[in-house]
Amino acid sequence: MSGAINAKIARVGRMGERHKIGRASTMRDLDFVPTDVIIDDISSDGCRLSAVHGLAPRDRISIGLPGFGMMTADVIWAGDGSAGIRFNAPLGPYDIAGIRAADTVIAAPFPACAAPRTESARVEGWSLSKRARSLVISAAALAAWALGAGGAWLGIRLAGFF
């Protein structure tokens, strides 16, 4: 079936009224790889995305909705850099109003992958063994508890309870 026929079939099953929003968002696939997209319009059942590539009908994704959070969805149709998705749980009228009013938190391209940590990121001069690090952490925790208990005891003594 061609993309145009798929799109017409998908439009017949729509339930909710569409609201144009034109907001930047982030879509993630099953591998949680982020992709910047634009939410063209939204309804209680789903939305239309643009600037998407590599999606196919029946793909499962998650989409960040401004002011709402992440929502899982299924791709209903895709083609020519656009896609129609159906949310796995419908949005309420107040949810849609909040999404329309919210600002997009971050509108920036994501790097393909995070930079690997290098050994130069370690603090120079600190070369404690695992046992020594454990002892330092335990001693610091014990000292914090002793200061807290001592402060409580002193507060009670000064208040005249003893």
What's this entry about, in short?
The chain is α+β, with helices and mostly antiparallel strands. The chain has helices at residues 3-12, 93-101, 130-159, and strands at residues 19-28, 34-42, 46-50, 60-65, 69-79, 82-87. A six-stranded antiparallel barrel has the order 1-2-3-6-5-4.
Write structural notes for this entry.
- This protein has 162 residues and is α+β, with helices and mostly antiparallel strands.
- The protein has two domains: 99 residues, Beta Barrel (Thrombin, subunit H); 32 residues.
- It contains three helices and six strands, in the order αββββββαα.
- It has a six-stranded antiparallel beta barrel.
- A hairpin with a 5-residue loop joins β1 and β2.
- The N terminus is likely disordered.
Architecture of the largest domain in CATH? Beta Barrel
- CATH topology label of the largest domain: Thrombin, subunit H
Query: What is the global morphology?
Result: elongated
Number of domains: 2
According to CATH, what is the class of the largest domain? Mainly Beta
> Can you tell me the CATH superfamily of the largest domain?
predicted glycosyltransferase like domains
How far apart are the first and last residues' alpha carbons, in Å?
86 Å
How large, in whole angstroms, is the Cα Rg? 26 Å
**How many helices in DSSP terms?**
3
Q: Indicate the mean pLDDT.
A: 79
Low-confidence region ranges: 1-12
Strand content: 25-35%
Helicity, in percent? Answer: 25-40%
> How does the helix and strand content classify structurally?
alpha+beta
How many strands appear in the DSSP assignment?
A: 6
